[in-house]
Amino acid sequence: MTTDHSQPPLIDTSKAHPARVYDWLLGGKDNYPVDEAVGETLPAEARDAARQNRAFMHRAAAHLAAQGVDQFLDIGTGIPTEPNLHQIVQRTVPTARVVYADNDPIVLRHAEALLVSRPEGATDYIQADVREPDEIVRHARRVLDFDRPVALSLIALMHFVPDEQDAHGIVRSLVGTLAPGSHLVLSHAAIDLFPELAEQVIAQYAKGGIRLGFRTRAEVARFFDGLELVAPGLVTATEWYGPEQQPPAPEPSGIYAAVARVP
User: Fold this and answer.
1) pTM of the shown model
2) In whole angstroms, what is the distance from residue 255 CA to residue 232 CA?
3) Which of 95, 157, 235, 251 shows the greatest Cβ crowding within 10 Å of its Cβ?
C-alpha cells in the first residue's frame, strides 16, 4: 500500500463533490450539507440511477470473475459501499488483484475498507483523477501486471468529464495500456433516453458547481471503438447481465452500460 495515511486528507466541504453526492443518493452517511443540497434538488430517478449503476457494476464484475479475470482497475471508485468490487470478484477468484482510484480525499479516509483483501489476493488505492491517466497507470503497474488482461472499470464516471476535457481520448489512453483479452466496463448517463430529466439533473448539478456531460447512445458507443462488445452489447444498466446470471427485474433506466473485450 503506497498511499500516505500519515496526513489527514484535506476535504473541501465548501462545494459539492460527485463521489459524496453519489454517496447521498445511495443512502450513505459520508457526505456534507453541500452535497445533500445538490441531492435534494435532483429528481427521484437520480437515486434509481445510482442504485442501477451499482447493481450493474456488481453483475459485470461477477461475470468477468466467472470468466477467470483476476485483475481489476476501478477508477472513480467512490466512497466504499459493501460489497465493494474486490469483495465481489474475490468470492470467485480469491487471488484477484484490484487497484482503486478516486479524486475525492474523503475516499482516502475510508481507503482501509477498500483494502481488506483476501490474503491470497491484493488491493491498493490511489488518490488520483481520471484526467491523469498516465499517473493512474503508473501507480497501478505496482500491483497489476499490464502484460496480462486487466478489467478497467469506469462506472458512472465519464459523464463528469465534458467533451472539451477529451473524455474519449482519456478512455482511449487507458484502454491503450491494456493487454489483449482485457475488458472495459463502463456505464454512462444518457442525454437521449429521458431528455427532460437529464437536463434537470445537469442543471441542478451545475448549481452545485459540478459540470456534467451526458451523452447520446452514439457518443457513449464511441468509448468502445475498436473493442468487442460482450453480449448483450450497449444497453441500459438494467438490461445488462451475463449469460450465466439471472436477468434483473425490468425497470426504466437513463444509464447506458456495456462490457467490451480488448482484441
Assistant:
1) 0.91
2) 15
3) 157
- The one-letter amino acid code at 20 reads R
Torsion, Cα 23 25 29 32, to 10 degrees, reads 80
Residues whose CB falls within 8 Å of the CB of residue 119, separated by 6 or more in sequence, listed in order:
none
* Residues 262 and 183: beta-carbon distance below 8 Å: yes
Distance CA 258, CA 237 (A): 8
Q: Which long-range contacts (CB under 8 A, 24 or more apart) does 127-133 make?
A: 127/3, 127/9, 127/101, 127/102, 127/103, 128/101, 128/102, 128/103, 129/103, 130/75, 130/76, 130/101, 130/103, 130/154, 130/157, 130/158, 130/161, 130/170, 131/161, 131/165, 131/170, 133/170, 133/173, 133/174
Give the pairing of strands 183-189 and 97-102: unpaired
Burial (Cβ within 10 Å: 0-12, 13-18, ≥19) of residue 17 = buried
**Which of 189, 157, 198 is closest to 174 using CA atoms?**
157
Helix (H, G, I), strand (E, B) or coil at 122: strand
What are the E-state strand segments in 48-96?
Answer: 71-75
Is 235 strand, coil or helix? strand
